[in-house]
Amino acid sequence: MQTLPLHHSGPLGGILEESERHQIVEMRLRAGNEIPPYQSPATIILITLSGSAEIHSSVDGSTATLLPDRIISLAPLETHSIRATADNTHIIAIKSGPTA
Known about the structure:
This protein is mainly beta. It is built from no helices and 9 strands. Helix content is 0%, strand content 53%. The strands form 2 sheets. It has a 5-stranded antiparallel β-sheet with strand order 1-2-9-4-7, with no helix packed on it. Strands 3-8-5-6 form a 4-stranded antiparallel β-sheet, with no helix packed on it. A hairpin with a 3-residue loop joins strand 1 and strand 2. The chain starts with 12 loop residues before the first strand and ends with a strand.
């Protein structure tokens, strides 16, 4: 068992854990901060701990709101962008599968 501390005071977050088969990333964003379009060969699970964000998928042009009571799953190679819509938005991204 391994415990991974979250960086509540860090400005942006960072990689918490990674291996050949998974990666756990912490993101801390303020309203209006945007992660530009991105894709990964891994499945990505997005979990919001606080705040809110819009996730835009380039696959079908859809946008979903990520709130603390929702989890969003992105398919491998699904290009997406993230834009925080609230200050103190704290997101955990879990990549499962080949991450490089």
